[in-house]
Amino acid sequence: MNSSLFTKESNHLSESIRSDFQLSPQETSIFDQIDWTKCPRHVAIIMDGNGRWAKQRGKLRTSGHKAGVQSVYDVVEACGKIPTEYVTFYAFSTENWRRSESEVNALMSLFSSSLIKYIDRLERDGVSLRVIGDLSRMGPKIKEEFRQAEERTSNNTKICMTLALNYSGRADITRVAKSLADRVVSGELKSTDITEEMISNSLFTNFCPDPELLIRTSGESRISNFLLWELAYSEFHFTNVHWPDFRKLDLFKAILNFQQRDRRFGGIDSVNS
Ligand code: FPP
């Protein structure tokens, strides 16, 4: 594409997106640096720092989780207004069962109550809700509530919000390996026919593209068993902001940071080619 046409398209998109937001001067200064024609299609987020946020305020850890729900909704709302199509949140890992019983119970209640509180807004804002992970351990009530919410929002197309619940990247890959092995044993498939595409198509995330951008909050730089296969070529953005403080400004900063990376996918950059 010729560069003046590209700038025109980018400016036009930027103007139309901006009209959907009320931006502070600080948000505007980051917003204006973003090329909205190069927005990540899929953003994955490891929400961290709820406990530390609460501790800094002399509150219970659970109040940090509660405050974190507002950040989830703010990010979903912002993603619905930009060209991002998928946003995936790591809400509960298989390792999170090691937390105290009271914290686990509080999180389960929060998942349920947040769903009840936000389901009408999800509908209104065109959000399609998906859940990934092994929901069988979450209890029949939560499982059914999320199933109904997925069904109710399945025709929405503005943004797809995915919650990873009782999720483990290794467990997901293992599940797929077992099912492919079963098909080989039954003679339905030859091991030499197994492709990366078949594995991608069998993972919980088979309905969405791999994330281009992973954000982790609260100063930690690990992926903690999240989307291990899917993050193979993603750009990682780590921020010190605790999750309950994460707002659209922080999302814009992450997208800008993503656009400043040179994504080569194992090849060489254009300058050195
Ligand atoms: C990590 O912070 C956060 C979690 C394990 C839970 C995240 C869940 C939510 C924000 C609720 C989302 C719910 C819905 C329905 C959208 P941490 O507790 O590990 O914090 P710390 O590292 O400071 O202790």
Tell me about this structure:
Helix 3 (50-56) crosses helix 4 and helix 4 (61-79) runs parallel beside helix 5 (101-124). The chain is an alpha/beta fold. The protein starts with a helix and ends in a 14-residue tail after the last helix. It has a six-stranded parallel sheet, sandwiched between helices. Helix 6 (140-152) links the parallel strand 3 (127-132) and strand 4 (159-167). It has helices at 3-18, 25-31, 50-56, 61-79, 101-124, 140-152, 169-185, 196-202, 248-259, and strands spanning 42-46, 86-93, 127-132, 159-167, 213-216, 235-238. Bound molecules: farnesyl diphosphate (FPP).
What would the keywords be for this entry?
6 strands, binds farnesyl diphosphate, six-stranded parallel beta sheet, alpha/beta, single chain
Strand order, largest beta sheet: 3-4-2-1-5-6
Q: Total number of helical segments?
A: 9
Compute the number of strand runs.
6
Q: Judging from the principal axes of the Cα atoms, what is the shape?
A: globular
**What would you call the structural class?**
alpha/beta
SSE topology string: HHEHHEHEHEHHEEH
Could you tell me the mean pLDDT?
94
Ligands and ions found? farnesyl diphosphate
Question: What's the short story on this structure?
Answer:
With 273 residues, the protein is of the alpha/beta class.
